[in-house]
## 1
Amino acid sequence: MKKKYNPWAWVPTLYFAEGIPYVAVMTISLVMYKRLGLSNTDITLYTSWLYLPWVIKPFWSPFIDVVRSKRWWILAMQVLVGAALGGVAFTIPTATWLQGSLCFFWLMAFSSATHDIAADGFYMLGLNSHEQALFVGIRSTFYRIATVVGQGLLVMVAGNLEVLTRNVRYSWSLTFYFMAGLFIALWLYHSYVLPRPREDAEHERLSVRMLMGEMATTIVTFFQKPQVVAGICFMLFYRMPEGLLAKVSALFLIDAAHKGGMGLSPAEYGLVQGTVGVVGLTLGGILGGIVASRGGLKKWLWPMVCAITLPDIVYVYLSYALPSNLVIVSSCIFVEQFGYGFGFSAYMLYLIYYSQGEHKTSHYALCTALMALSMMIPGFFAGALQELVGYRLFFIIVMASCSLTFLVSTFLKIDSDFGKKA
């Protein structure tokens, strides 16, 4: 290694940079398109397609080892993400704002997914085993901070700019220009502080033909695992309620009252969903990890199934009561997100459980592809369904879909010791 910087100098900022574009594509885009007047049907359909890079990520991740170093990929993707953010900002005030912004969101999504692959690989090359264990919590924390900044602070900034400028398009354009500048600054910083591990420059590179052969073997062995049907059904349908809810819930919170929504301003949304909600999600995930490490996945599966489904009923309450008190709204969102974070722990642990054995890294990547697909498919029709039946009946349908989560969980066979702390 030619020069080694303290990991504190680059690990936190690298994972902060990993979180920002994902939040921009998956969450900020929803609020922006709603403020620009797009229908719920179009918003959920168009933005659900943006999951595709994360669905197919396992199929091109091996080629990042063939072409250039992971450090090169990180820096190149950060430039592309910065350019894409600037492109979104530039197109918002134009007549072709929808086509142009979607084009740049696509570029951002593919660049972000590629950046994820390179950053996770670089993390293992740039740190020794002790440092990897030490910083695993740090990287997750700064990814969460990026979520709060993107989903909370930046949406609040855009909302306040709307009040100051009296121009929705100009406000969101300025916000994305700021994000572009932030990302270019991160690129310049990482160009200087990222270490140059010898292993990153000199590791053995396989031919494309060998990689294709390994990929085929990985896929075949993935579908030869015990309980493959039950496992894949669990990966696709465990989060069905969340797949329906994820995009529509955000639109519900900011939609006008005469359309059945809560009528929150972008600033209020940033506080409620982007800050309080993220805190609840994080705390639920932490608690889920703690209890699973003590009792194992099998013991905690059903409490986690209940946690990821039953709190969704807060949206039924909100859609009927339409409370104006922000404390009540925030409390409901906190409960739902806390339950989701706690219940999602079972899902992530099962992905690890299913991936055990030979090719576990590649099999886990395929599991995460199915995880992205489980959110992508419901998103295609969620907005159209909501506009067809209204928010109240839609949230009742979401509660009915919870039966799928319970159904697919009943067929799992899990080792009682898996997940317990040895």
Note: The chain has a mean pLDDT of 88.
## 2
Amino acid sequence: MKKIFSILFLSLGLTVFSQQVESIETILNDKISIRAIEVYDHKVWYSGTDSKFGFADLNDYKNQKQIKLSEEKLQFRTLAQDKTSFYAINIESPARFFKIDKKELKSQVVFRDTAKTAFYDALHFVNDKLAYTFSDSDKDHLLKLAVYKNGTWSMFKNNILLNEGEAAFAASNTNISSTKKYLWIATGGKASRILRMNLKDEKIEVFNTPIIQGESSQGMYSIDFFDDNFGIAAGGDYTKQDANVNNIATTNDGGKTWQIKASGQNAGYTTCVKIKPGSKGKEIVAIGDKHISYSSDFGKTWKKISDEKGFFVCQWIDGNNVVLAGNNRIAMMKLKF
């Protein structure tokens, strides 16, 4: 009986961690830092440093185009889209909200935030008519959101107070996630909490998390939700990238409570987590400046599948391919199962 159990356990273990990286192929090289990507029309679109915006064709890597959204050397860490346009916000003040037509790639500034503290960390479309973006707050510590409704941007009025030293990280444009019912925002720094908005009445609840926090460099950097209940958060401390204690957590009740996973048993500081489409939350890819990791059991255990460095953001293309972007390049990773 013991022998049968051991064989079964070994078999399951091999199944759980049978995925491997078959290849990582660079599809774009440039002097740029990229922390936000979108996939559209079989292309990966990006925004980055030096006001650069463009695409690389996933079917023909030689087919590329890049434009500059401004003559100034602006830095972009956000990118989102609706049916007809892309949107990007620079992180410096004044924050300019750029709208880029998908057909002609012509851009225009459609909204501005002139506050000295304006620093937009992530931009997320719930659907074609509704989007939210989150900025570091002013001195009053009031939660600062801008909302896009039916073609118009405005500031979102609320009375949610952030703690002193609580902000967010513009690491991969993924500290906001949504389903049809909820929008979640992950904060970080001296406090790392989850803000959950009910999209029907726009009421916001705030929940504590056990993620490492207390220093300005600590907290959640990325979140992703499969449905109204299951979600994952990851991060750590960018000044101590090998530290891997209390940096990954999951929720099964829509963000109310969180359970630490794989503490001390993961690859460390993580900037982006993405649930594999069709896996119902079971399979997840995670990347940091120094690693690419994979979980096949809802984030409970992790395997480092690559030591590739310099990637900050990722996006699933299909069940076997993930596009990666970061320091000076975009690459396509093919997984073998």
Note: The helical segments are 2-16.
## 3
Amino acid sequence: MTDVKLNVPDMDCDHCVMTVTNAMKALPGVEDVQVHLEDKKVDVRYDQSKLDEQQIRTALDEAGYPVAA
């Protein structure tokens, strides 16, 4: 398993948390998602053999929550 912590600055409410969580859980290989609204961070644990970080970033972007550098 691989862990990645992403900065997602556009999150500002519980609806954002739910949308981001659902987008991540829909990806094959995602084992766990932790959304930290106060820090605007998303921690994702995933199986690197099924998914890569770029696919995670793309899914967040498509959900309306682009990852900041």
Note: The mean pLDDT is 96.
## 4
Amino acid sequence: MGRPSWDSYFIEIAQVVASRSTCLRRQVGAVMVKDRRLLTTGYNGSPTGLAHCRELGCLREKLQVPSGERHELCRGLHAEQNAIIQAAIYGVSIKGATLYCTHFPCSLCAKMLINAGICRLVVAADYPDSLARQLLEEAGIAITPFR
């Protein structure tokens, strides 16, 4: 068996990171990479020290909120948000980095990624948020679907 490509390698790492997710609806993992070096990771779940949705149930399910809508009605942070926050906590610059993510970002995360200076996005699965794609394309961020 040959060595995996860099995109395959980092997407596989993002998939392992997603296994830490406590979300009941979708497990998402993200890794920030620059110069083929792993900078930060993130998965979706409740803020540090707070009860997880696995313990309390999913508010979005209870309210029957469709996927891709009303992100504020969730106690969890998204994987991309946690990867950005981890960079801030540890003083790691992610400007010019590539984000490898198991799912396409939502529009809120897309705006954060744009302002964080991400230059490339590699995603394994889609997400129903057309505004996110529009914003990322307008910002000139290269989007590579991983299949």
Note: The chain has six helices and five strands.
